[in-house]
Amino acid sequence: MTRTARTLSRRGALALGAAAPLALAGCVAGENARKDSAGGGGSGDWSLSELTIDFATYNPLSLVIKDQGILEDALGDGVKVTWVQSAGSNKANEFLRSGSAHVASTAGSAALLARANGSPIKVIDIYSQPEWSALVGPKGTDLKDPADLAGRSVAATKGTDPYFFLVQALDTAGLTVKDVEIQALQHADGRSALDGGSVDAWSGLDPIMAAAEAESGDVLFYRNVDFNTFGFLNATEDFIENHADVAQAVVDAYEKARSWALENLEGTAKLLAEVAGIDEKIARTVITERSNLDVSGVPGKDQTSVLEKIAPVLGASGDVQGGEDAVTKALTSIVHDAFATKATSK
Q: What are the boundaries of the signal sequence (predicted)?
């Protein structure tokens, strides 16, 4: 076994094996709490006794943190870490809105949608700048561009980046979601519907999308990197205000994971393959070609400028009760950069 393999094979590191269903949002208890290795974290030193945080295959840094026990090491015996799996941004937002998680990862567009609809969340760190969405047709498809979708059926997960990718793509052809038949399915189910012939197209998400290309011969017939938003790590306002010490530990863990991942892209791909149950070659494509992890973790203008472009589309989509005014208000208040600023200055 190689040194990388030994690193990735920590005993008991993953509650999900390679065969675990990608679409399920499971709940996995954190590993045994460890003594703090960074000078704090003894019992009673933290502002809460249990942290619930998500991991997701669309968020490679979360997989590194979970696999290596970075948070458990930092928090020590004082805080139990419980991991929940997000099958998509919509599920992550459900965790946050319901109080089932303190911290969860989404696409920027999904975070903006949630806050515009009244969910009290803010972005505290940026985990990637991906090209994780595209329009996908089956092998041999006659679809060439968004205009060809008029009158066709499209699978998409509402409240996620692929859904808003579809909205923006249709807009380039002078179309709206009313001009297509939306099949609201979770990401993995969207791929199944496409491969089974139940829909004409799918607005896909990696790594499921990359697997569909390699395994089924599905075709990414429309790509536009500018229609993808950043990867947002979000927390509830209550957590930010009342548990800032633990929030800082979370963001510190993300920056530590980023440093490791950038130095170990092959290892990160291997880990993604194991958790997602996909071939390592497919995972390597996702990590090296479609996931830019080498970005500043500090949320700010780079992210809000991207969201400003989709705000009018989001406001007019009918998915926000307060329309464009609510979207604008959410956009001006969604960023909390203090934890990432401190973490990246160390």
A: 1-25
